Every structure is written in C-alpha cells, then in structure tokens.
Amino acid sequence: MSYMPKDQRRAEIVEAAIKVIDAEGIAAATVRRVAQSIPVSPGQIHHHFDSADALRAEAFLELWNRLREKYYDQLQKDTKLDTIVSMIAGGEDPETMESFKRFYADLAEAAKMSKVLLDVRQRVLKSAYDRRVELLQQAQAAGELSAKLDIPRLSMSLIALSLGLGMLEEIEFETIDTKEILRHSIDVENFAALNGEEALNRKD
Length: 204
Hints:
Helix content: over 70%
Shape: elongated
CATH topology of the largest domain: Tetracycline Repressor, domain 2
CATH class of the largest domain: Mainly Alpha
Number of strands: 0
Distance between the termini: 77 Å
Number of domains: 2
Strand content: under 5%
Largest sheet: none
Structural class: mainly alpha
C-alpha cells in the first residue's frame, strides 16, 4: 500500500465503494470487498469510516448526486411544468431513469436494516422534494401556475404520487401513462388554487 494524503485516500476508498455499489449493490460494499478492490487493508478503511454503513452512505450519496446532476442537465423543456413532468416521468433518458429506480430500490431495501441508510433515504427524498419546490416556484413566477398555489403541498403530493406510480409499475399492475397522470394532478391542484377548493366539490 503506497502512501497517500488522507483526503486523497478517503476519496479513493469512496470511489472504490461507488464502483462496488454500482456493479453489485449496496450490500456487497463491505469493508473487506472495498479494501480488496483498491487494494488497502480493512484497517485503513476503518481509519476513515466508523462503519461499513458509513462508507456505504457516503458512497451512495455521491453516486446518486452524480447521476442526478447528469440527469438534470438534459432536462431543458419548453416550460417549467414540462421540465417537472419530464423529470419525474423519465425524460428522454430511460436508461438513467432505470438506474435511478435500481439504486433507489436497493437503498429502500438496505434502509430497512440500517438507521444510517434510512437517513440516506430520507435525504434523497428531501432533495427530490426541494428540487420540485424550486421548479414549481419557477413555473409559478413564469405564470404557468396560480400565484395562490401551495407549492410545498403540491411538491409533497408529487413525491407521494411518483412513489405510488413506481410501485404500480414495479408490480406491472397495468400500463401507466406517467406523464399524463402527473400533469393531470398538477392541473387539478392549479384549478383548485385558481377557483377555490370548493370548486372541486361543487355540483353542476
């Protein structure tokens, strides 16, 4: 094992863990497995990380953030609402969307057994929520949405809806037009904001 500055060694360990997670999944990224791939001693990894889950957490977040930024960069639509719908539904990059689904399913399973990875799952969802709030606020400022619309509530609704749609797709319940469902949900919320909540319940 050659000498390497502390920060550089840590980055090397994280990068090795990222490669293992990408190829084999979170559970495969054990200290021993990552150490063998560099190679360094397991003790060297424990010098930088308190536990295997701490290493998995940092590596997964880095992997997720890289994928997310790459994905966001190609989302340039005519309107902000088009961007939001495309972002959630998959855009024109189904391969990247499949990677998101694979990594998130892996994280969801790992989070059942680890508080550290549960925290990572919460951070991933919070980041998705914040991004939706940002884009919805931009759409609101551009006049695409009512100024009365409750953006945080709509963002949370879209998170819940996308998770539900993902579950239906996973079990192959039926063919789903995700973009149509998402856009309809936004339109309903926007209509309610424009006309008042009572408009949705008003009888003809």
